[in-house]
């Protein structure tokens, strides 16, 4: 339950710090004192401060607000306010009682995207006392900036959306049409379309292709346009001669968007050089929290996605991580920014699960209750963290190159660790560890994976196989300096001293 500050609580003459239900936990003479207590108790309980309660006359339609939800702080924009009676929440059976002292509002939820925020189709209702007014959320950077996928809407698709809007105004669109479809159709008619809309339109067109067999679905049919035909038009898909063209445009653009989003990026470390051991790659990981907010899920790598130039182009083949995953006694850990001081989970503790699926290397972890874990949750909730990375070496024969060296395929990867990337990664400790293993592997003739497993087993007090133990002992013996000569005078002096003692006894 979050904590708020307000100067309207009847139990305090000044500023109050109160719980979500209005219970006062402290009264203060100044706003700053109240803020200090609110922040202190919020941090002590590992939650985000609620902020200042919205006053009955403070919010207006169009304002941005935040509130507490089961998944953390949610954010949105006020679309409707009622100050008396009841307010019905769309697409639900809920109603909210409103009053002048505590009005009710309908709020459209906004969600974080890669470089800003965008509105969703979901509308919720809340009383003012649960809301905190916030600054307007930044819209995403115009998608034409820094994007390789050209989403210039063809004129025939724009005309199609415009025709769908005209039919909708005539009342021909049916009862099941979502308001967001109309809103997006207006944007499409103006030549504006988001990446998300393109992907959804491609999927929608595939699902509803069978609707075109119904009466009134195509120009020239009796009863044209049917509600299904109008829906197609609003999605930018004509049902006549250019149907296949539109479907192909959405399919091609959706594929380009996915390929761009799934590209691996070279992490900011030194370029790979001949003979180097550890390498790092990162990718947009579709990160999210599940369950009660303690289960982290993301992708550290994606298969068959061309990397940015390294300067060579690289792809990871499906199954490349299989051997590392099957080695159950190999302890792989999940870090923040490859920093071994900030471990989130490990396979040995049972808190980290790695698996390959059709997409790539899926990571699932139960996060501990640590400060940096809580920071990570807050960053993910704010939408500013969206990448994972992994550190690896390539066993002999684990990669292949084309004739001119411009393309590389990783077919087997010795995985050492995975990380959530929140900023500039701290690679030095990980790189040094892997280089040390690589050097010891060379001296002992033991593979890096096997050597890593042996050292993990020693750390856990397990018994090594005889051959492994012998080779490690041989390496230790070879690196052990010879025993120093006994302390004391050299032998020649000792002999002379003995003769002197004998002469004294004569």
What report would you give on this structure?
This protein is of the alpha+beta class and 506 residues long. It has three domains: 3-134, no CATH class; 155-261, no CATH class; 269-459, no CATH class. The chain contains twelve helices and 24 strands. It has helices at 31-44, 155-169, 179-189, 195-207, 227-234, 243-261, 322-326, 371-382, 428-444, 448-459, 466-479, 491-504; strands at 3-6, 15-19, 24-28, 51-52, 64-69, 72-82, 85-88, 95-98, 104-113, 116-127, 132-134, 264-266, 279-284, 288-290, 295-302, 313-316, 333-336, 339-346, 352-356, 360-366, 387-393, 399-401, 407-410, 414-421. Strand 17 (333-336) and strand 18 (339-346) form a beta hairpin. Helix 4 crosses helix 6 (243-261). The longest helix has 19 residues, at 243-261. The radius of gyration is 33 Å and the shape is flat. It starts with a strand and ends with a helix. Mean pLDDT is 77; it is low at 266-276.
Descriptive tags:
12 helices, 5-stranded antiparallel sheet, 24 strands, 3 domains, single chain, alpha+beta, 506 residues
């Amino acid at each position: 339950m979050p904590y708020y500050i307000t100067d309207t609580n009847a139990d305090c003459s000044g500023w109050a710090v109160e719980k979500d239900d209005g219970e006062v936990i402290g009264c203060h003479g100044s706003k700053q004192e109240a803020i200090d207590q609110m922040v202190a108790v919020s941090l002590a309980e590992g939650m985000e401060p609620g902020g200042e309660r919205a006053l009955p006359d403070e919010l207006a339609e169009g304002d941005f607000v935040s509130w507490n939800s089961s998944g953390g702080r949610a954010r949105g924009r006020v679309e409707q306010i009622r100050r008396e009676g009841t307010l019905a929440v769309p697409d639900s059976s809920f109603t909210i009682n409103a009053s002048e002292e505590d009005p009710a509002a309908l709020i459209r939820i906004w969600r974080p995207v890669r470089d800003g925020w965008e509105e969703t189709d979901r509308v919720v209702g809340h009383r003012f006392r649960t809301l905190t007014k916030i600054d307007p959320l930044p819209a995403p950077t115009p998608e034409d900036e820094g994007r390789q996928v050209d989403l210039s809407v063809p004129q025939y698709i724009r005309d199609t959306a415009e025709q769908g809007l005209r039919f909708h105004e005539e009342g021909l669109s049916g009862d099941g049409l979502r308001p967001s479809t109309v809103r997006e159709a207006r944007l499409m008619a103006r030549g504006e379309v988001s990446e998300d809309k393109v992907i959804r339109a491609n999927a929608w067109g595939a699902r509803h292709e069978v609707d075109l067999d119904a009466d009134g679905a195509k120009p020239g049919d009796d009863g044209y346009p049917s509600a299904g035909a109008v829906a197609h038009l609003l999605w930018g898909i004509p049902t006549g001669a250019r149907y296949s063209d539109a479907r192909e445009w959405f399919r091609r653009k959706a594929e380009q968007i996915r390929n761009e989003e799934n590209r691996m990026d070279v992490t900011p470390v030194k370029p790979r050089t001949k003979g180097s051991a550890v390498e790092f790659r990162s990718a947009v990981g579709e990160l999210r929290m599940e369950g009660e907010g303690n289960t982290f899920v993301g992708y550290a790598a994606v298969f068959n996605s061309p990397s940015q130039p390294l300067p060579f182009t690289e792809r990871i083949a499906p199954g490349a991580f299989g051997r590392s995953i099957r080695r159950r006694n190999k302890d792989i850990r999940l870090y923040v920014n490859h920093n071994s001081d900030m471990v989130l989970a490990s396979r040995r503790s049972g808190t980290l699960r790695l698996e390959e699926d059709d997409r790539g290397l899926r990571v699932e972890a139960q996060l501990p209750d640590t400060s940096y874990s809580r920071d990570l949750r807050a960053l993910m909730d704010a939408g500013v963290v969206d990448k994972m990375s992994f550190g690896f070496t390539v066993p002999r024969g684990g990669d292949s190159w084309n004739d001119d060296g411009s393309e590389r395929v990783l077919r087997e990867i010795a995985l050492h660790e995975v990380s959530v990337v929140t900023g500039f990664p701290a690679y030095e400790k990980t790189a040094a560890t892997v280089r040390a293993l690589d050097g010891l592997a060379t001296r002992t003739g033991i593979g890096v994976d096997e050597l890593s497993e042996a050292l993990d087993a020693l750390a856990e007090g397990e018994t090594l196989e005889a051959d492994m133990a012998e080779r490690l002992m041989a390496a230790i013996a070879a690196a052990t300096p010879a025993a120093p000569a006994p302390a004391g005078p050299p032998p020649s002096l000792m002999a002379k001293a003995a003769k002197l003692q004998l002469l004294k006894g004569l």
